[in-house]
Design goal:
Elements lengths: L8 H4 L42 H7 L13 E4 L7 E4 L7 H11 L5 E2 L9 E10 L2 E14 L21 E7 L13 E13 L6 H6 L8 H35 L1 E4 L1 H21 L4 H6 L5 H28 L6 H15 L5 H8 L1 H20 L1 E4 L2 H24 L1 H9 L17 H4 L5
Parallel strand pairs: 2-9
Antiparallel strand pairs: 1-8, 3-7, 4-5, 4-7, 6-7
Helix pairs in contact: 3-5, 5-8, 5-9, 5-11, 6-8, 8-11, 8-13, 10-11, 12-13
Length: 450
């Protein structure tokens, strides 16, 4: 019986989600406009919105990741015979050559190849430039080592066009006129001249080659064939992960629903604190404070607190069950289980992981919780009855699920209670255990293949 639900796996799969090299920020003088102000009328604070200075918000933002109480202090639990639980699932995805090719085409643009020929529109040129007006340099008109994609429209009209055809090492004089409505009034409408040095020219590769593979630092492969095989294995491991994860999560939820569980006050508090902590961490990933995060859902602070208590209780029950299974089956975080996780992450990411690297990157406690959870859920999956649907039934259910999800989304836009469900949605299950390590879904890993 295979494992699954590697929660930290998604965060480790950097191969296919790594961003292309980022350049330095664009100096104002070279931009068409300043960064757009994203504030809208809906974002303007009203008297009903929560302030970031609210003492309760500040207190929640200071919440540290709580430590779960000992199993003996979690409460009481009586679980049904696992064999009475029935889970119906869609067939496991079979990875074919087309999916591998799609994934490769998704990855190729993430690592540009340096070219010797003239620059074309769509190429990324690394440039040094110095701007002058009437022979005088001006503030914000110079930069070194800037990556500019030709045709992106990031620079003032005419700038990028004059670099098409240039080669690495060329020095180009670019003549432009700042727009009349340019944000810097002292530059608006003025003619300027930029002395540009083209350092390198990089281009999106059109095909997978050994040269590209060797230059791509997100893989251990050395040839195109090795890389293609690595991608196939990664997709197979990812889809296998998803398949077993779906079964395990459904079985776990049914077990929660069918068990007689009384949580201790300490365990309830643990669940609530963990959900608050997780939402604070998620807000940070979005680059906002908790107050703005809650406001985006139109919730009151009281509604948010109630949601954290409710969802926290569900999470606590799932955690309780997992720890009970682990205790009953003698499951512990052994080196062998950690090594197994490292091997799986290596296959899924193309990056080599070992026990030491896992612990250094995610923390010993997180890794131990992960492997115990995986082993407990693997055991649970092996005990329940699993029925695999035929393809037609699976497609019908998938369509129904999509319709249901769309209806829920529409309802969420008009219902404050639905908004409360949304804000806790990714954190109501045991999957919230990884909120502190920058969660990335496995769906993103295979977005191009689906």
């Amino acid at each position: 019986m295979k494992k699954r639900t590697i929660l930290i796996a998604a965060a480790a799969v950097s191969m296919v989600i790594a961003a292309a090299g980022c350049g330095k920020s664009t100096p104002d003088a070279a931009k068409t406009t300043q960064a757009a102000d994203t504030a809208t009328a809906d974002d303007v604070a009203t008297s009903s919105e929560i302030s970031e200075d609210n003492p309760e918000v500040k207190k929640m933002e200071a919440t540290e990741k709580p430590k779960a109480p000992a199993l003996s202090k979690m409460g009481t639990i009586t679980m049904p015979d696992f064999s009475t639980i029935e889970v119906t699932t869609a067939p496991e995805t079979v990875v074919d050559d087309e999916m591998v090719n799609q994934q490769i085409q998704y990855i190729l643009p993430q690592h540009l190849m340096e070219v010797d020929g003239p620059a074309e529109e769509g190429d990324t040129v690394n440039i040094d430039y110095e701007g002058t007006i009437n022979g005088e340099a001006f503030d914000g008109g110079s930069s070194k080592g800037y990556d500019l994609k030709l045709g992106s429209g990031k620079f003032i009209p005419g700038f990028e066009d004059q670099l098409v055809g240039a080669k690495a090492g060329d020095k180009v004089t670019v003549n432009v006129t700042f727009p009349a409505d340019y944000q810097q009034a002292d530059l608006a409408g003025k003619a300027a001249q930029f002395a540009v040095t083209v350092n390198t020219i990089k281009r999106v590769p059109t095909e997978l080659t050994d040269e590209w593979v060797k230059s791509y630092d997100q893989t251990t492969a050395q040839t195109a064939d090795e890389f293609r095989q690595q991608i196939k294995e990664m997709l197979e491991e990812t889809f296998d992960n998803q398949y077993h994860s779906n079964i395990q999560q459904e079985a776990l939820q049914q077990l929660v629903d069918q068990s007689d569980i009384t949580l201790s006050d300490e365990m309830k508090q643990y669940g609530t604190d963990f959900l608050i902590y997780s939402n604070v961490q998620q807000a940070k990933q979005y680059g906002v404070g908790l107050a703005d995060y809650i406001n985006q859902y139109g919730m009151s602070l009281e509604d948010f607190k109630k949601e954290m208590e409710s969802e926290g209780e569900q999470y606590a029950k799932q955690y309780f069950i997992i720890q009970k299974i682990a205790k009953d089956q003698g499951i512990e975080a052994t080196d062998a289980l950690i090594d197994k996780l490292a091997d799986e992450l290596t296959t899924m990411s193309g990056t080599t992981y070992n026990r030491i690297k896992l612990i250094e990157q995610y923390g010993g406690e997180t890794v131990k919780n992960e492997v115990v959870r995986n082993a407990a859920l693997e055991y649970l999956e092996g005990q329940v009855k699993v029925t695999v649907q035929d393809e037609a039934a699976a497609e019908t259910d998938a369509a129904a699920s999509a319709t249901e999800a769309a209806a829920e989304t529409e309802a969420a836009e008009t219902s404050e209670s639905s908004a409360a469900e949304n804000i806790a949605a990714g954190t109501s299950s045991a999957a919230v255990e990884t909120a502190n390590i920058g969660e990335t879904t496995a769906a993103e890993t295979t977005a191009a293949a689906n």
